[in-house]
Amino acid sequence: MSLIDIQDLINENEPLASLPNTFYELQKVVADPACxxxxxxxxxxxxxxxxxxLLRIVNSAFYGFRGEVETISHALGIIGTxxxxxxVLATTVVKQFKGIDMIDMDYFWRHSVACGLSARAIxxxxxxxxxxxxxxxxxxxxxxxLLMCLKVPDQLRIVLDFAGKSGDRWHKAEAKYFGFDHxxxxxxxxxxxxxxxxxxxxxxxxxxPASAQNFPIEAAIIxxxxxxxxxxxxxxxxxxxxxxxxxxxxxxxxLSEDLHLQQIIEHAEVQLEEISELFLQTT
Length: 283
Description:
The chain has 283 residues and is mainly α.
């Protein structure tokens, strides 16, 4: 077993110890009751690349406005402050991770986007709104693995080689070697970034949602979305119409596999190519 501590992975990597200042400045402004859309837009527009990414997402299949939204203020008026902040978070985090070549990054982000879209579709199937936070949780569910690629690449290669030979799932092989898996690393990284507890726990426990103490439904949704996204990316035309998940996971999210699975897959698939391209362009 490795003697590496999760916190060491974060503390020894200063550039990733916090998010860019723009995100934290936005948080402060949004928390101010006296702020308006123009105040928020002014901060975002200082970063032209962020502005362009946000407008492209708002005008994409994600919302379906198709070229109707031309300014950040207009976007805020349509989708709301909280929803736009979730998109800022998503694009900011994706841009943080560059130069990783030990895993297929195109596949990584396609799977992550598929997980986010699936989580958003699950939330919608449950009759809930404001699915952006579930999209972000799904998008970031494997972020801990990227940190491990950057900080302990040699040891991670040993783990992945062992997983390939033993047939273990990656997260189980990680736990055997390190004493923790990439979910726990991701949760710790989000905690270091002072992101919401709900998001931390959904990411940290996405392989074992029953262990989530405070937000088990959120963790269960990301667990289910993760499994659905593997089906979408790896074998969309498979004759097997079932999704392998933890026992009773469909009951936990209050949905039925027979009634809702195909609907969730279709909602995610229709947006996958376009949204994947948008996020891959940020890396």
